[in-house]
Amino acid sequence: PQVTRVFDKIYRLIAGRANPDALVRKVVMGLNWTVAVVADGDGNIATGLCYSHTNVPRTLPWSGTLVGRRVGEIIPWQLSWNSAESAVATAVINADINLREILCASAQILENTAPGHLRVFAHFLANEELIPNNAHVAIIGHYPGIDTLSHGRQLTILERNPQPGDLPDTAAEQVLPTADWVFITASSIANKTLPRLLELSTNAKVVLMGPSLPWLAEWREFGVDYLAGVQVGDAPQ
Questions:
Q1: I want to staple 90 with a disulfide (CB 3.0 to 4.6 A). Which of 16, 50, 102, 225 is the partner?
Q2: What is the pTM assigned to this prediction?
Q3: Which of 176, 185, 193, 84 is nearest to 142 (CA)?
Q4: What whole-number distance in Å separates Cα of residue 79 and Cα of residue 10?
């Protein structure tokens, strides 16, 4: 099936861009974000992030054993259905990619006054030439306050734990093929829903966004038109 081929290509791409010989320096699993620090053989250090899934196992058999491991040992966890393992792997891979990829260096810094979780939406939705007022915009994930930035556009929110006004994430099968713009959280990489979301969004302009994003130019091959991520520049080592 097509979605299986896309799944394989996406995760092979991400895994293949990580240096298996780099070393894990630090891993912290927080309530909202998992943070990893990775160092290469030349002593260069970078930080990567991934959204921490709320439903992680209560006990982690590998807790306290990750520092000093090679990135290659962690890469296979990206395909794990254990949410803690996939979050750690995504953060580790993102950190390693940040050591070498220069794509984000040429990115436009968003300096609008919107809160951090709404800054990407404020940038795009304020541009009527880019997104016309009659456009149908679908957003994967609930972002508090997003309705204040709609500027009259039809916004459809797809959320795994729907709040009033949201649709369940299973509605993506019906909503995304008819959307003009789709904003997809990069945390969908870790929970393995991204390949299907991209397949459903082939008729739309797609923004892949969030701190879980690995900065790779090849996303365009999967129908992604815009990347909106972060780079940690001053994390304590």
A1: 50
A2: 0.91
A3: 185
A4: 11
